[in-house]
Write a structure and sequence with these properties.
This protein is of the alpha/beta class and 274 residues long. It is built from 7 helices and 10 strands. It has one domain: Alpha/Beta hydrolase fold, catalytic domain (Rossmann fold, 3-Layer(aba) Sandwich), CATH 3.40.50. It is 35% helix and 24% strand. Strands 1-2-4-3-5-6-7-8 form an 8-stranded mixed β-sheet, with helices on both faces. It has a two-stranded antiparallel sheet with strand order 9-10. Strand 7, helix 6 and strand 8 form a beta-alpha-beta unit. The longest helix has 29 residues. This is Dienelactone hydrolase domain-containing protein. InterPro entries: AB_hydrolase_fold.
Protein backbone atom coordinates (compact mmCIF):
# COMPACT_ATOMS: atom_id res chain seq x y z
CA UNK A 1 0.00 0.00 0.00
CA UNK A 2 2.10 2.87 -1.34
CA UNK A 3 -0.16 5.67 -0.03
CA UNK A 4 0.01 4.29 3.53
CA UNK A 5 3.77 3.93 3.23
CA UNK A 6 4.04 7.58 2.17
CA UNK A 7 1.93 8.71 5.12
CA UNK A 8 4.06 6.68 7.54
CA UNK A 9 7.21 8.14 6.02
CA UNK A 10 5.84 11.71 6.47
CA UNK A 11 4.98 10.99 10.12
CA UNK A 12 8.49 9.70 10.79
CA UNK A 13 10.01 12.78 9.14
CA UNK A 14 7.81 15.03 11.30
CA UNK A 15 8.79 13.19 14.47
CA UNK A 16 12.47 13.41 13.51
CA UNK A 17 12.14 17.18 12.99
CA UNK A 18 10.44 17.59 16.37
CA UNK A 19 13.18 15.56 18.02
CA UNK A 20 15.84 17.85 16.53
CA UNK A 21 14.02 20.97 17.78
CA UNK A 22 13.55 19.75 21.35
CA UNK A 23 17.07 20.69 22.56
CA UNK A 24 16.62 24.26 21.30
CA UNK A 25 13.25 24.59 23.03
CA UNK A 26 14.63 23.11 26.25
CA UNK A 27 17.59 25.48 26.25
CA UNK A 28 15.26 28.45 25.81
CA UNK A 29 13.05 27.27 28.66
CA UNK A 30 16.07 26.97 30.96
CA UNK A 31 17.38 30.45 30.17
CA UNK A 32 16.75 32.99 32.96
CA UNK A 33 14.34 35.80 32.23
CA UNK A 34 16.23 38.84 30.94
CA UNK A 35 16.79 41.66 33.40
CA UNK A 36 14.69 44.74 32.71
CA UNK A 37 16.42 47.80 31.30
CA UNK A 38 17.53 49.81 34.30
CA UNK A 39 18.27 53.52 34.53
CA UNK A 40 21.01 54.52 36.96
CA UNK A 41 21.43 57.87 38.70
CA UNK A 42 23.87 59.23 41.25
CA UNK A 43 22.26 61.05 44.18
CA UNK A 44 23.69 63.22 46.90
CA UNK A 45 22.70 62.07 50.40
CA UNK A 46 23.17 65.02 52.70
CA UNK A 47 26.71 66.26 53.26
CA UNK A 48 28.39 62.91 53.88
CA UNK A 49 26.82 60.36 51.58
CA UNK A 50 26.14 59.38 48.01
CA UNK A 51 23.64 56.97 46.58
CA UNK A 52 23.30 54.92 43.43
CA UNK A 53 19.66 54.84 42.36
CA UNK A 54 18.57 52.08 39.98
CA UNK A 55 15.18 52.52 38.33
CA UNK A 56 13.37 49.65 36.58
CA UNK A 57 10.81 50.35 33.83
CA UNK A 58 7.63 51.86 35.22
CA UNK A 59 4.39 53.17 33.68
CA UNK A 60 4.51 56.92 33.04
CA UNK A 61 2.98 59.05 35.77
CA UNK A 62 3.30 56.44 38.52
CA UNK A 63 5.81 56.81 41.34
CA UNK A 64 7.86 53.75 42.27
CA UNK A 65 8.30 51.93 45.53
CA UNK A 66 11.94 52.00 46.59
CA UNK A 67 14.15 49.75 48.69
CA UNK A 68 17.02 51.61 50.33
CA UNK A 69 20.06 49.38 50.87
CA UNK A 70 22.09 50.29 53.96
CA UNK A 71 25.36 48.36 53.74
CA UNK A 72 27.40 46.66 56.44
CA UNK A 73 30.59 48.20 57.82
CA UNK A 74 32.71 46.88 54.96
CA UNK A 75 30.57 49.04 52.67
CA UNK A 76 30.84 46.58 49.79
CA UNK A 77 28.03 47.11 47.26
CA UNK A 78 28.63 43.59 45.94
CA UNK A 79 26.97 42.12 49.02
CA UNK A 80 23.74 43.88 48.12
CA UNK A 81 23.83 42.88 44.46
CA UNK A 82 21.68 39.75 44.69
CA UNK A 83 18.97 41.63 46.59
CA UNK A 84 19.07 44.54 44.13
CA UNK A 85 18.74 42.21 41.13
CA UNK A 86 15.66 40.50 42.56
CA UNK A 87 14.03 43.79 43.56
CA UNK A 88 14.63 45.43 40.19
CA UNK A 89 13.22 42.38 38.41
CA UNK A 90 10.15 42.78 40.65
CA UNK A 91 9.65 46.40 39.61
CA UNK A 92 11.07 48.00 42.76
CA UNK A 93 13.59 50.85 42.57
CA UNK A 94 16.79 50.34 44.56
CA UNK A 95 18.81 53.09 46.25
CA UNK A 96 22.20 51.87 47.50
CA UNK A 97 23.40 54.32 50.14
CA UNK A 98 27.10 54.89 50.85
CA UNK A 99 28.22 56.87 53.89
CA UNK A 100 31.53 55.04 54.33
CA UNK A 101 33.46 56.36 51.36
CA UNK A 102 33.17 53.35 49.08
CA UNK A 103 34.10 50.45 51.27
CA UNK A 104 36.36 51.49 54.16
CA UNK A 105 35.51 50.05 57.55
CA UNK A 106 34.89 53.44 59.10
CA UNK A 107 32.23 52.64 61.66
CA UNK A 108 33.22 55.29 64.21
CA UNK A 109 33.29 57.95 61.45
CA UNK A 110 29.85 57.19 60.08
CA UNK A 111 27.14 59.81 60.65
CA UNK A 112 24.59 59.05 63.35
CA UNK A 113 21.95 56.56 62.13
CA UNK A 114 19.19 59.18 62.30
CA UNK A 115 21.28 61.57 60.18
CA UNK A 116 21.84 58.86 57.58
CA UNK A 117 18.17 57.94 57.43
CA UNK A 118 17.06 61.56 57.19
CA UNK A 119 19.47 62.17 54.29
CA UNK A 120 18.16 59.10 52.46
CA UNK A 121 14.50 59.94 52.99
CA UNK A 122 15.04 63.56 51.94
CA UNK A 123 16.61 62.35 48.69
CA UNK A 124 13.67 60.02 48.06
CA UNK A 125 11.15 62.79 48.74
CA UNK A 126 12.90 65.11 46.26
CA UNK A 127 12.92 62.57 43.44
CA UNK A 128 10.00 62.91 41.04
CA UNK A 129 9.82 59.18 40.24
CA UNK A 130 9.96 57.75 43.77
CA UNK A 131 7.06 57.33 46.18
CA UNK A 132 8.09 58.56 49.67
CA UNK A 133 5.14 56.66 51.13
CA UNK A 134 6.46 53.29 49.88
CA UNK A 135 10.00 53.13 51.23
CA UNK A 136 11.50 49.96 52.71
CA UNK A 137 14.88 50.08 54.43
CA UNK A 138 16.97 46.99 53.66
CA UNK A 139 19.82 46.85 56.16
CA UNK A 140 22.75 44.43 56.13
CA UNK A 141 24.62 44.01 59.43
CA UNK A 142 25.48 47.48 60.71
CA UNK A 143 23.11 48.93 58.13
CA UNK A 144 20.27 46.99 59.73
CA UNK A 145 21.26 48.37 63.13
CA UNK A 146 21.26 51.89 61.68
CA UNK A 147 17.78 51.37 60.21
CA UNK A 148 16.44 50.41 63.63
CA UNK A 149 18.48 52.72 65.86
CA UNK A 150 17.75 55.78 63.74
CA UNK A 151 14.10 55.02 63.22
CA UNK A 152 12.84 56.77 66.33
CA UNK A 153 14.20 60.15 65.16
CA UNK A 154 13.81 59.90 61.38
CA UNK A 155 10.46 59.92 59.54
CA UNK A 156 8.66 56.56 59.56
CA UNK A 157 8.95 54.20 56.60
CA UNK A 158 6.69 51.48 55.22
CA UNK A 159 8.89 48.63 56.41
CA UNK A 160 12.25 47.43 57.69
CA UNK A 161 14.10 44.39 56.33
CA UNK A 162 16.79 43.64 58.93
CA UNK A 163 19.39 41.08 57.87
CA UNK A 164 21.71 39.71 60.61
CA UNK A 165 21.65 42.99 62.63
CA UNK A 166 23.56 41.65 65.65
CA UNK A 167 20.60 40.97 67.93
CA UNK A 168 21.34 42.45 71.37
CA UNK A 169 19.59 44.35 74.21
CA UNK A 170 20.34 47.74 72.58
CA UNK A 171 18.42 46.77 69.46
CA UNK A 172 15.60 45.27 71.51
CA UNK A 173 15.25 48.59 73.33
CA UNK A 174 15.22 50.49 70.02
CA UNK A 175 12.57 48.11 68.67
CA UNK A 176 10.12 49.18 71.38
CA UNK A 177 10.09 52.69 69.84
CA UNK A 178 9.91 51.57 66.20
CA UNK A 179 7.19 53.15 64.07
CA UNK A 180 7.52 50.79 61.10
CA UNK A 181 4.28 48.86 60.53
CA UNK A 182 6.07 45.82 59.05
CA UNK A 183 9.44 44.24 59.84
CA UNK A 184 11.38 41.33 58.37
CA UNK A 185 14.05 39.92 60.69
CA UNK A 186 16.29 37.49 58.83
CA UNK A 187 19.25 35.65 60.41
CA UNK A 188 21.11 32.37 60.17
CA UNK A 189 20.97 29.45 62.57
CA UNK A 190 24.78 29.18 62.66
CA UNK A 191 25.41 32.87 63.38
CA UNK A 192 27.13 33.51 66.72
CA UNK A 193 26.49 37.26 66.39
CA UNK A 194 22.74 36.70 66.08
CA UNK A 195 21.91 33.91 68.56
CA UNK A 196 18.40 32.54 68.25
CA UNK A 197 17.26 33.51 71.75
CA UNK A 198 18.48 37.10 71.37
CA UNK A 199 16.77 37.45 67.97
CA UNK A 200 13.57 36.04 69.45
CA UNK A 201 13.68 38.76 72.11
CA UNK A 202 14.30 41.39 69.46
CA UNK A 203 11.33 40.20 67.39
CA UNK A 204 9.10 40.25 70.47
CA UNK A 205 10.16 43.78 71.44
CA UNK A 206 8.41 45.57 68.57
CA UNK A 207 5.12 47.32 69.44
CA UNK A 208 1.95 45.20 69.25
CA UNK A 209 0.74 46.97 66.09
CA UNK A 210 3.88 46.03 64.18
CA UNK A 211 3.71 42.94 61.98
CA UNK A 212 7.03 41.11 62.44
CA UNK A 213 8.14 38.25 60.20
CA UNK A 214 11.12 36.44 61.71
CA UNK A 215 12.84 34.01 59.37
CA UNK A 216 15.87 31.78 60.02
CA UNK A 217 18.17 30.46 57.30
CA UNK A 218 19.25 26.94 58.20
CA UNK A 219 23.01 26.63 58.54
CA UNK A 220 23.71 30.24 57.52
CA UNK A 221 26.35 32.29 59.33
CA UNK A 222 26.80 36.01 59.68
CA UNK A 223 27.16 37.82 56.35
CA UNK A 224 26.15 34.85 54.18
CA UNK A 225 26.18 37.21 51.17
CA UNK A 226 29.90 38.14 51.44
CA UNK A 227 30.92 35.53 48.87
CA UNK A 228 32.84 37.86 46.52
CA UNK A 229 36.53 36.99 46.74
CA UNK A 230 35.98 34.03 49.10
CA UNK A 231 36.65 30.51 47.71
CA UNK A 232 33.63 28.17 47.80
CA UNK A 233 33.37 26.72 51.28
CA UNK A 234 35.85 29.26 52.63
CA UNK A 235 35.41 31.57 55.60
CA UNK A 236 36.09 35.23 56.26
CA UNK A 237 36.09 37.47 59.32
CA UNK A 238 33.91 40.55 58.92
CA UNK A 239 33.59 43.64 61.05
CA UNK A 240 31.20 43.17 63.96
CA UNK A 241 27.90 44.97 63.21
CA UNK A 242 28.01 46.76 66.55
CA UNK A 243 31.51 48.11 65.80
CA UNK A 244 34.52 47.82 68.07
CA UNK A 245 37.47 45.46 67.73
CA UNK A 246 35.41 42.26 67.57
CA UNK A 247 35.04 40.32 64.34
CA UNK A 248 32.23 38.13 63.03
CA UNK A 249 32.98 34.79 61.38
CA UNK A 250 31.23 34.32 58.05
CA UNK A 251 31.03 31.33 55.74
CA UNK A 252 29.47 32.89 52.64
CA UNK A 253 26.84 30.86 50.84
CA UNK A 254 25.42 31.73 47.42
CA UNK A 255 22.38 29.50 47.92
CA UNK A 256 21.52 31.15 51.24
CA UNK A 257 21.91 34.54 49.56
CA UNK A 258 19.45 33.64 46.80
CA UNK A 259 16.95 32.32 49.34
CA UNK A 260 17.35 35.53 51.34
CA UNK A 261 16.87 37.61 48.19
CA UNK A 262 13.56 35.86 47.53
CA UNK A 263 12.48 36.49 51.12
CA UNK A 264 13.38 40.16 50.81
CA UNK A 265 11.53 40.56 47.50
CA UNK A 266 8.38 38.94 48.87
CA UNK A 267 8.48 41.18 51.93
CA UNK A 268 9.03 44.37 49.93
CA UNK A 269 6.27 43.56 47.45
CA UNK A 270 3.80 42.79 50.26
CA UNK A 271 4.82 45.90 52.18
CA UNK A 272 4.61 48.34 49.28
CA UNK A 273 1.52 46.87 47.63
CA UNK A 274 3.26 46.02 44.34
Amino acid sequence: MPHLDCRIARVWRLLAALFLLLPAWASRADEPAPMPEVEVELLRLGEAGTGILSLPPQPAGRRMAVAVVLHDLDGSPIRGGAYADRLLAGGVAVLAADFAGGGAESGPDLPHPAVRLQAVLDAVARHARLDPGRVVLLGLGEGARAALLGGAEAPPVAGLALLYPGCDPLLALAATASRAPRVLLLHGTADAVNPAAACDRLAAAFPPGCRVSQRRLAGATYGWDAYAGVPPGGAIRLAHPAGGPGRAWSRPDVTATLVAADRVLGFVLATTGQ
